[in-house]
Write a structure and sequence with these properties.
There is one protein chain. This protein has 567 residues and is mostly helical. The protein has 2 domains: 271 residues, MetI-like fold; 276 residues, MetI-like fold (Orthogonal Bundle), CATH 1.10.3720. The chain has 27 helices and 2 strands. A hairpin with an 8-residue loop joins strand 1 and strand 2.
């Protein structure tokens, strides 16, 4: 049921378009404009020539591509066995493995980076044991290796989740036919399973690359600055807002992000991945041979120990008073938590405020865009979806630089405070960055709502606004809640945009506080404590939101009867 365009729909669409233009398109366009123009406004490629003439910039560009690519590779090596063995074989503990496999997503990589140094660094726990037992160490955390190691361990769940869903949707008849023809083992996986699961794999791989390419906190915490995101941040903050090299680095980051998304789509273009039926889960799971079971369980246990090590490390660090050149902390204390609650309680409040406002704005905008696309005949409505979703390809540091440049001369009304120093700009950045997640949740929820329910309400005399309020929104509540929670939780650990926009500790959220603490050896204990609190907030939020969503789904039929027939 598509409706005729009403003035209210047009006004809402114009308001959303104005928001996206002002806080997404214009800042990004400003970054591009500065990169391609001289001080007098004339077009030039000189800045790009200067960028590639600098050894550090060329090195940073290649390093970013290398780190992104290697992170995808290692994430794939972790994810593929976890997904394949748990989905295609009788594997005890499969649910537990899949659950533990997504835990790294609740901890941002820059939080666990310091703990990873203590565990896997040159003088970390693992290398101390290796040197003691075997007389050698492994450079897990040296330079770019450390960034790749940390990023891969934190972002591989994107591949795991998408690949698991893809494997579950493969037509079981295809695998059964291949088995009957003699295909088995790696050949079956290589020729049948993996090609059919390619859309899910590429979607996850593209997300991993985007996240790694965007991340500025992890390299800085590990003192690795020859990375494009770190250089963009350092050029603007150290040299100044007018430095053209920082803008060139930003443009290259945007281009790389767009190409990553486009590339994943291009690879699948012209290929048919459709199946006759869904049914991978109905395929009789195969038994592992004894030697296969040993290898599979051994590999998966090793992987889980490694991927969960940052959580253990950050927990130990939060309670440590002294942890240096030892396998575990030498002295334990609660002082780190006392320090955090005494000195950083304002950051916790700021986080709840900023993320709550941003998530609320995201679900309002996401619900409105979804309704305009699916329920109206608004001309150009698909562009709202395209632009809003496109925010995922804009690195946080680039958006932050765009805000600083675009609004540098804008003063807040009735005050002398510049807009770029006001906490609301952080909220806006969070909302723009997380809008794609909320939009997808709201769109999916509305797609599952049959239009007959709305028609029934209107036939019984309910007005359009009352139908939306009493029928549409309540029945979308699960998707709206999922979008709110996703936006809130991911914004709570946002650092790329935050690091650019925070001007004072009084308006800083927890993510910025963690980063500040991690800059010094003495501050890593309190930083870890604040990180544990942040992870706990994310974990508890995820748990309770899932319970609410399940409860909402269980009671959805009752809600439909109660709201769908009353005008």
């Amino acid at each position: 049921m598509t409706q005729r365009l009403s003035p209210a729909h047009a006004a809402i669409a114009l308001a959303i378009a104005a928001f996206l233009i002002l806080f997404l398109l214009v800042p990004v366009a400003t970054v591009v404009y500065v990169a391609f123009t001289n001080s007098d406004g004339s077009l030039t490629l000189t800045h790009f020539g200067s960028f590639f003439s600098l050894t550090l910039m060329r090195e940073s560009f290649y390093n970013s591509l290398y780190v992104g690519g290697m992170s995808v590779l290692i994430s794939s090596l972790i994810s593929l066995p976890l997904a394949y063995f748990t989905m295609r074989f009788r594997f005890r503990g499969a649910v537990l493995v899949q659950t533990l496999g997504v835990l790294p997503l609740i901890m941002p990589p820059f939080v666990g980076a310091a703990a990873m140094q203590l565990l896997f660094g040159r003088s970390g726990s693992v290398n101390l044991l290796l040197n003691d037992w075997f007389g050698f160490g492994i450079p897990f955390m040296e330079g770019l290796n450390g960034v790749i190691f940390v990023e891969a361990l934190h972002y591989f769940p994107f591949i795991l989740l998408n690949l698991t869903v893809a494997l579950a949707n493969i037509d079981s008849a295809m695998e059964e036919s291949a088995q009957n023809l003699g295909a088995s083992g790696f050949r079956l996986f290589r020729r049948i399973v993996f090609p059919l699961a390619m859309p899910g794999y590429l979607a996850g791989a593209a997300l991993v690359f985007l996240k790694v390419f965007d991340d500025v906190g992890t390299p800085l915490v590990l003192n690795v600055t020859n990375i494009l995101a770190a250089q963009a941040y350092l050029r603007i903050t150290s040299i100044g807002i007018d430095d053209p090299i920082g803008y060139v680095a930003s443009v290259i980051m945007v281009i790389a992000s767009i190409l990553a998304l486009w590339g994943s789509t291009w690879v699948m273009r012209g290929r048919d991945y459709a199946t006759q039926q869904r049914g991978g889960s109905s395929l009789a799971k195969r038994e592992l041979k004894p030697w296969q079971a040993v290898l599979a369980y051994g590999w998966i246990i090793l992987v889980l120990i490694v991927v969960l090590s940052p959580h253990l490390g950050i927990l130990l660090l939060s309670f440590s008073k002294v942890w240096s050149y030892s396998v575990v902390p030498d002295v334990y204390t609660l002082d780190n938590y006392v320090t955090v609650f005494r000195d950083s309680s304002g950051m916790m409040v700021n986080t709840l405020l900023y993320c709550g406002l941003a998530a609320g704005a995201d679900v309002l905008i996401g619900t409105a865009i979804a309704y305009l696309i699916l329920r109206t005949k608004l001309a150009g409505r698909q562009w709202l979806d395209f632009v809003a979703t496109g925010a995922i390809a804009i690195p946080g540091v680039v958006l932050g630089i765009g805000y600083l440049r675009t609004f540098k001369d804008f003063q807040l009304p009735f005050t002398d405070e510049p807009f770029t120093a006001f906490w609301l700009i952080i909220v806006i950045a969070y909302a723009v960055r997380r809008l794609p997640y909320a939009l997808r949740s709201c769109t999916a929820a509305l797609q599952q709502l049959h239009v007959s329910l709305e028609e029934a309400a209107e036939n019984l005399g309910a007005s359009k606004n009352r139908t939306i309020y009493r029928v549409v929104v309540p029945l979308m509540a699960g998707g709206i809640l999922a979008g709110f929670v996703t936006s809130f939780l991911t914004a709570a650990v946002e650092l790329s945009a935050t690091i650019m926009l925070v001007t004072a500790q009084s308006n800083a959220p927890m993510s910025y506080g963690i980063y500040l603490y991690m800059q010094s050896i003495a501050g890593r204990g309190p930083g870890a404590a604040l990180g544990v609190i942040a992870v706990a907030i994310v974990a508890l939020g995820t748990y309770f939101s899932n319970r609410l969503i399940r409860n909402r789904a269980a009671g959805q039929e009752t809600q439909m009867l109660k709201t769908g027939v009353q005008p």
